[in-house]
Amino acid sequence: MHKLHAALERRLPEKRLFLRSDTETRFIRLSSEKQLIAWIGSTLLVGWTIMATAILLMDSIGAGNFRAQAQRDKQVYEARLNDMAAERDLRATEAVAAQERFSAALEQISVMQSALLASEDRNRELETGMEAVYATLRDSMKERDIARAEANQLQAALDGSDVTTSGMASDELTSTLSILSEALAQTAVERDMTVADAQAALDHAAELDLELRLMQDRNQEIFGQLEEAMLVSVEPLDDMFRAAGLDTDELLDEVRSGYSGSGGPLTPLQFSTSGGMPDPDTMRANSILSSMDRINIYRIVAERAPFVLPVHDSFRYTSGFGSRWGRMHEGVDFAAPVGTPIYSTADGTVIYAGWLSGYGRLIKIQHDFGIETRYGHLSAIRVDVGQRVSRGERIGDMGNSGRSTGPHLHYEIRVNGQALNPMIYIRAGSDVF
């Protein structure tokens, strides 16, 4: 200790701090040990100050970078949402235009059906009239031939008779020949009129046949346009449901079982009243109506399945579906301020509305086809158990309840109890709506 003190004395000699007043003088003795302790404390204080300042600067820079990145992410998501909204509006406009074209086509088909039925009636009337004309013509020709034969017989009898035949017999023959001549002339006139009527009927039938062919060509063009429109409209819907992992045939059967009424504009057409197998135009028209019925059913299914986003305001996508920190994250997270409105993604019935463990305030909605959606970490619940809700109806507010690190919505989709990635449905719906 003596040697250590001596070494300190050489480095840090003892110092005295004098304090003088008007009446006395005092001093504070600063030994080498005290100076060493003060130097070490000052060094530690300065080092701590430097480290704390550096940490604060690093945190500030990191927070600025994080905010800038978050702002960039927000701008990217907002731009993406705007694009999706524009695409959805475009699809909706196209759907409305297609529906209008379908309605116009249905009206044209109805007019065509009426025209075809009237044409069939006129054809039948013409066929009946022509048969009557041909029968009258045949009878007139037979009567003409009989009268001509009788005239020839009378003429031969007159030529071979005795010139001394009495005047009375000659007068009778002359009178008979006159009557027969008049009958032949009248028959010839009737024959000419009948031939003219038959020719007019044939000409009218040719005009009707040309009109029918033109109508058939027009029908072919209309059917082609309608079939193309059906193809363009139905295929995206088929792809959407298949992308969501749903069996389209089962969906159609289930919806048809609940909407089984028939009649109206989608009733299969019948273009002929003669019975028998339907003609090709009828089959094509019924195929188009079947496609329209399929689109109508898909519209019902789309309202009853969760193909839209639960958040309509600006948000940040913070966590996806899958393993996270060694645990399965069975939904997706959308971050936004507390109180952001949350909307139902499909028609359904509320089966749970309350607090549930790590979910915090939770809403469960049961939809058709075995689909259930969950909305967790809410700040407010705006629905009750047993309540029927529609797609796009506000059901709650975003919050930070339960096991949560910040305000966000935890959104799940379960099919028959099994959790599926909600983005499958959202991406499939964004391609159509």
Description:
This protein has 433 residues and is α+β, with helices and mostly antiparallel strands. The chain has three domains: 70 residues, no CATH class; 206 residues; 120 residues, Glucose Permease (Domain IIA) (Distorted Sandwich), CATH 2.70.70.10. Helix content is 60%, strand content 17%. Helix 2 runs antiparallel to helix 3 and helix 3 crosses helix 6. It is rod-shaped, with a radius of gyration of 50 Å. About 4% of the residues have low confidence.
Query: How confident is the prediction overall: mean pLDDT?
Result: 78
Overall tally of domains: 3
Low confidence ranges: 162-166, 263-274
Radius of gyration, whole Å? 50 Å
Percent range for β-strand residues: 15-25%
Principal-axes geometry comes out as rod-shaped
Topology (SSEs and partners):
Blueprint: H1 2-11, E1 15-20, E2 25-30, H2 32-160, H3 167-243, H4 248-258, H5 280-304, E3 316-319, E4 322-324, E5 327-329, E6 332-335, E7 341-343, E8 348-356, E9 360-366, E10 371-381, E11 388-389, E12 394-398, E13 408-415, E14 418-420, H6 422-430
Antiparallel strand pairs: 1-2, 3-6, 4-5, 6-13, 7-12, 8-9, 8-11, 9-10, 10-12, 10-13, 13-14
Helix pairs in contact: 2-3, 3-5, 3-6, 4-5
